[in-house]
TrEMBL record:
InterPro entries: D-isomer_2-hydroxyacid_DH, D-isomer_2_OHA_DH_cat_dom, D-isomer_DH_CS, D-isomer_DH_CS1, D-isomer_DH_NAD-bd, NAD(P)-bd_dom_sf. Keywords: NAD, Oxidoreductase. Gene3D superfamilies: NAD(P)-binding Rossmann-like Domain. One of its GO terms (molecular function) is NAD binding. GO terms for cellular component: cytosol. Belongs to the D-isomer specific 2-hydroxyacid dehydrogenase family. PROSITE patterns: D_2_HYDROXYACID_DH_1, D_2_HYDROXYACID_DH_3. It comes from the Bacteria. This is D-glycerate dehydrogenase. Residues 114-289 form the D-isomer specific 2-hydroxyacid dehydrogenase NAD-binding domain. Residues 8-320 form the D-isomer specific 2-hydroxyacid dehydrogenase catalytic domain.
Amino acid sequence: MSASLPRILVTRRLTPAATERARRDFDAVVAEQDMDAAAVLDALRRHPAEAILIGPKVKLDAAAVAQLPACVKLIANSSVGYDHMDAQAAKARGLIVTNTPDVLTDCTADLAFLLLLGACRRAHEYEAIMRSGWRKGFGLPDMLGVRPSGKTLGIVGMGRIGRAMAQRARGFGMRILYHNRSRLPAELEQGAEYFADLHSMLPHCQILSLHLPGGEAGTLMDAAAFAALPKGAVFVNTARGSLVDEDALIAALKSGHLFAAGLDVFRSEPDFDTRFAELPNVFLTPHVASATQETRDAMAMRALDNIAAVTAGRGPIDPV
């Protein structure tokens, strides 16, 4: 490998196309298995690198950031969220931190709407009936779901993904409410109704969907928040498990206050609370909102684009 190529450490498995590019365009060590922070620090001792490409399994807290060797100039996250690392500690050390906005917007909104539909229409229960051999028909009042068309959808976090979710909901004739740190300009609202206070919005939300990053927000949905939703509401989360008090969510689902939930993210992943799997009114996916070939390629390539730009002296494309 030419010594003139930038030296990088890729700490997670990439798609084949991105792996080929990393090895072609950089002096790269590419992980065969996703690394944790300790493995990253060990690899950097053996392969001093200008940049590291990381994912959520690399928990770079302030202590780990302090141990990064001086050769590291850039931490490139191959995801939008970066709450798995202490970005402020990294920037305080003079490190550049980047992420990959935009490229996973559509796929995340697609999966969020899949969860919404699956929760409303009892998809988990219907499929279980079919897989067990369905031999008994249902009458008019049996196994009824909730019609999503025409419902009022509350969106928490009206960034790119939240707006993409709203766009999909409009196709189902939904009324859109949203809570955000600040109100959007009218051209981005597209008729959505703004609530500066989350708890003022919740009583109006027949369906509630979270689309904001975790970390700084803390636990947003606690027992009081779920109680504020109207009886029979549906809850969807493709944002961060840390935003939700899971005990409170389970209680709301068991009591019938919530009709159902669609969940892609959990407080402890992949060791999620298996009580969710025991509830028939929960539609579950294993944190796979971005899991399409197109999007995973784009995420890895965008991280490599940031590395290429910084190592060439052009500055980051997507600074955090």
